[in-house]
Design goal:
about 90 residues, two-stranded antiparallel sheet
Length: about 90
């Protein structure tokens, strides 16, 4: 059975802070180094060296009478193969 670890957090930031958080994540992805995600008094580090990343972008704008609610979800997904697995597939 596969083992999974999950970290989920919700925080409030200024627009500048939220944009900087996304820039920092983008820089970590481009670096190819491990990526550390922080939240809810916990951290998770995941491998960052990949060839392709699947992306999913979802946007929602809901008008609720006196106010609007906007939600944008960004999902990034990639698979890490061990060096042994890569060598076997070239065989």
């Amino acid at each position: 059975m596969a083992e999974a670890t999950e970290l989920e957090t919700e925080t409030k930031h200024s627009p500048e802070e939220a944009a900087q958080m996304l820039r920092d994540l983008a820089d970590e992805i481009v670096s190819g180094n491990e990526i550390t995600v922080e939240g809810n008094n916990a951290t998770m580090t995941v491998p960052g060296t990949v060839e392709k990343i699947s992306t999913e972008l979802e946007a929602e704008h809901e008008i609720k009478g006196e106010y609007d609610q906007v939600e944008i979800e960004i999902e990034l997904e990639w698979t890490i193969f061990s060096e042994d697995d890569e060598g076997d597939s070239e065989g």
